[in-house]
Amino acid sequence: MGTRQIVVVGGSHGIGAGIVQLCVDSGADVVTFSRTPGETAGLTGVRHHSVDIVSEAIEKSDLPEVIDGFVYCPGTINLGPLRAVRPNQLRSDYEINVVGAVQTLQAALPGLKRSADASVVMFSSIAVATGLPMHTSVAASKGAIEALVRTWAAELSPKIRVNAIAPALTDTPLTEKFLDRDEKRDAMAAKYPMRRIGTVNDMAAAADFLLSRESSWMTGQILGIDGGMSSVRK
C-alpha cells in the first residue's frame, strides 16, 4: 500500500492545522486548500493551494489522482439572539459550511472513488443536537451538514465512508474572543462535565481516527467530542 493521500479544506489554522500535522506525522501526503497556508506553512509533506472556497472552485488538477481521506473544516461562529439574526449572516454561514462542502466534495469524488479505503470527515457542532441559545445561524448550517453526512454515507457506501465530528467550545483562533481572559476561560470550562474546554488535539485526534482503518465499520455517524456536555448531567 502506498502513501496515504489526504485532502484538507480549511487546514490553515486551529483544528484544520492540527489535522494536517497529525496526518503528516503519520506519514501521509497532504494537500490543503485555504486562503493562506497559515500554521502549516513550511511543513514537509504538505502542498498548499490558495483558494477562497466561497467564491472560487477547486481545480481538479490540484487534487491527487487517488484521495484516501477528505476533511472539510472551514467554519464560522456567528452568535447572537434570534431578533438580531440577519439574512446575509444566514446566507454567509450556509455558503461556507454547506455550499462549500458540497462543491469541494464533488471535486474530490473521482479521487475518492479510486481509493481502496476512502474516508470523508466533516465538522458539525454541539449546537445541532443540544439546544443552545444564540446559535441560530450556526445550528442551521451545521444541522444541514449532519443531514448531508447521513445522505452521503448512504449514497457513497460501501466505497466511501462519511462521518462528522461535532465539537463543543474548542481553544482555537476562531474562539479567541470567548477565551481572552482567565475568568472567561474558567467560567466556560465549568460548564463541561470534564471541567475543561476542548483542544485542537482533541478534535484532530478524532479526525485522525475517522480517517484511519480503525474506523472502517463506521459511516453516517456524528461523533460528539464535547467534554460530555451533550449527554452528561452533573
Question: Care to describe what's here?
Answer:
The protein has 234 residues and is of the alpha/beta class. The chain has a single domain, classed as Rossmann fold. The protein has six helices and seven strands; from the N terminus they run βαβββαβααβααβ. α1 packs across α6 (200-211) and α2 packs parallel to α4.
Question: What's the quick description here?
Answer:
36% of the residues lie in helices and 16% in strands. The chain has 234 residues and is of the alpha/beta class.
Provide keyphrases for this structure.
alpha/beta, 36% helix, Rossmann fold, 234 residues, globular, single chain, 16% strand
Mean pLDDT: 93
| Strand runs, count | 7
Helix fraction, binned, reads: 25-40%
In CATH, what is the class? Alpha Beta
Instruction: Return the CATH topology.
Output: Rossmann fold
**Shape type:** globular
Q: Sketch the topology as an H/E string, one letter per element.
A: EHEEEHEHHEHHE
Across the major sheet, the strand order is 3-2-1-4-5-6-7
Task: Lay out the secondary structure.
Layout: E1 5-9, H1 14-25, E2 29-34, E3 46-50, E4 69-72, H2 87-113, E5 118-123, H3 126-129, H4 136-156, E6 160-167, H5 182-189, H6 200-211, E7 222-225
Parallel strand pairs: 1-2, 1-4, 2-3, 4-5, 5-6, 6-7
Helix pairs in contact: 1-6, 2-4
